[in-house]
Amino acid sequence: MQRYFVPPGQFRPDSVTITGEDAHHLIRVLRSRVGDRFIASDGRGRDVLAEIERIGKNEVLASIIEEREPTPEPKVAIWVAQSLPKADKMDLILQKGTEIGVARFIPFRSMRTVVQYDDRKEEKRTERWRKIIKEAAEQAHRSRMPDVAAPVSWKELLGIVPRTELAMICYEKESANGIKALLKRHAAGRGPTQGPLMIIIGPEGGFDEREVDEALAAGCEAVSLGPRILRTETAALVAAAAILYEYDE
Question: Are 111 and 208 in contact (CB under 8 A)?
Answer without folding.
Answer: yes
